[in-house]
Amino acid sequence: MSHRQTLRQFYETLYAAYGPQHWWPADSPTEVVIGAILTQNTAWTNVERAIRNLRQRGALCWSTLREMPAAERAELIRPSGTFRVKARRLKAFVDHLWTHHAGSLESLLGGNLDTARRELLSIDGIGPETADAILLYAANRPTFVVDAYTKRVLRRHHLIDATADYETIRRLFHDSLPCDVPMFNEYHALLVEVGKRHCKSKAECEGCPLQHFAHDAAAWRSAAETPNRGRSTRRPSPKRYAPAQREAPLSRTPRRTS
Ligand code: SF4
């Protein structure tokens, strides 16, 4: 079976097993972006506490975040960990938004996808995973999000080797799947789900929906590569992503919402 066929069958199998995941857990594109920045290297429960603080302060909007004192911004997001760094990253994002797009997320995330992605990557603290999460979940743009769970599952199933980098893996999905936002949205969430339930540092293949596909559960040996060094093992269990219901979508109407 080709990698392309395998990836498609993975999706069908995981979707049949787990159903729709309804990502991302946010009330608006702005909240998706803030959550994507805050979730770097921390548990989602901590992000939720920070988001709650921001909401209570009325700071889930860029103008308020931009105008508030740096110390207050940092204090509000303290529960998300490394809060001074993340406060700087939020400020860098909002400064960029104001300087180059007059505060408009739609302007930043709309237009040519590659251009928008490159621009996001130029902002301090925005790496490929965060950029793709923002584009996919805040703006409904067709870009696949690769996280540590994705790498682990693919590696254990011999779809990538240990040296495969982010862009190689992202390209594999783009080349194998239809350019389909709802599928990219769902597939990433499903990979996180199977990672949380089964494909842990020590794989629990028994009962895993993917157990009948050829795999090597011991293929992920290096502690340096385990997802729990990053954010992914502590990803949310998102159940309320519905941007079109609560805030106008950034650039296009989602074809499907939760
Ligand atoms: S737990 Fe086992 S069967 Fe499931 S995805 Fe990981 S390696 Fe594959």
Q: What is the rounded distance between the termini? A: 32 Å
Q: Which small-molecule ligands are present, each listed once?
A: iron/sulfur cluster
| Rg of Cα set | 18 Å
The CATH topology annotation of the largest domain reads as: Endonuclease III, domain 1
- Detail the poorly predicted runs: 222-234, 237-258
Order of helices and strands: HHHHHHHHHHHHH
| Tally of structural domains | 2
- Tally of alpha and pi helices: 13
Structural class by sheet pairing and helices: mainly alpha
| CATH architecture label of the largest domain | Orthogonal Bundle
Q: Looking at this structure, what is the CATH superfamily of the largest domain?
A: Hypothetical protein, domain 2
Q: Can you tell me the CATH class of the largest domain?
A: Mainly Alpha
Helix content: 40-55%
Number of strands: 0
Give structural notes.
The chain has two domains: 3-22 and 144-234, Helix-hairpin-Helix base-excision DNA repair enzymes (C-terminal) (Endonuclease Iii, domain 2, Orthogonal Bundle); 29-143, Orthogonal Bundle (Endonuclease III, domain 1), CATH 1.10.340.30. With 258 residues, the protein is mainly α. The model is unreliable at 222-234 and 237-258 (pLDDT under 50). It has helices at residues 3-18, 29-38, 44-56, 62-67, 70-76, 83-101, 105-109, 113-121, 128-139, 148-156, 166-176, 181-197, 243-246. 53% of the residues lie in helices and 0% in strands. It is globular. The protein contains 13 helices and no strands. The two termini are 32 Å apart. The site of iron/sulfur cluster has 14 residues, from helix 10.
